[in-house]
Amino acid sequence: MPIKATDVKRGQFILWDGQLHQILETEHVKPGKGPAYVQAKMKNVKVGGIKINRLNSDDRLDEVNVDRRPMQFLYDTGGRGEGPFVFMDSETYDQVEISNEVLPKEQSQWLKENTECTVSIFDGKPLSVAFPAALELVVTDTAPQAKGATASNQNKEAFVETGARIRVPPFIENGQLVKVNPETGEYLGKA
Question: Which run of H or E residues covers position 84?
Fold first, then answer.
């Protein structure tokens, strides 16, 4: 189904140059001189390459209907955070293996058992994994708060139960449950 370039959103799948691409980022640019355009960062699903393309505002793109299914992360078959990762369809209970090419280390570092995700599937092949907006994780290792330290925006380094490294306020201690944005790795608050 054709859509206007100005309606393209992050996470959509489109046909571009005859190949399936996922939109990673979009930016509407209105230069002082000349027509407005959309700058889109796209990932070629087949090859895996990422490229920034300039789209005219009146361009029409073919959107691809991708099946988005709720799935639950079960386990990492390799056991080292490198995949393949096994997910279970929440409706049919079918299990699907997702490679580290689809789920890179930047994303897989947030996986813990039973995490509910949305998996995009096209022609029976997993294309991408979308995490919830916030994950609740236990802090496993962080430095204790310095004596006499006042409240400030000086964050300290901490490790969470999945092995990911985040920055937290000084009052956070080992064993506390915190909310983290899996997209940016940003601390969102106590859980």
Answer: none
pTM exceeds 0.90: no
Residue numbers of the domain that contains 163: 135-190
Q: Tally the domains of the chain.
A: 3
Residue 65 has pLDDT above 70, yes or no: yes
Same domain, 80 and 92: yes
CA distance linking residue 70 with residue 47, whole number of Å: 25
- Decide which of 81, 98, 130 is a domain's last residue: 130
Rounded CA-CA distance 112/165 in Å is 14
Residue 151 binned pLDDT confidence (cut-offs 50, 70, 90)? low
Give residue 147's pLDDT band: very low, low, confident or very high (50, 70, 90): low
Q: Which of 19, 8, 71, 77 is nearest to 46 (CA)?
A: 19
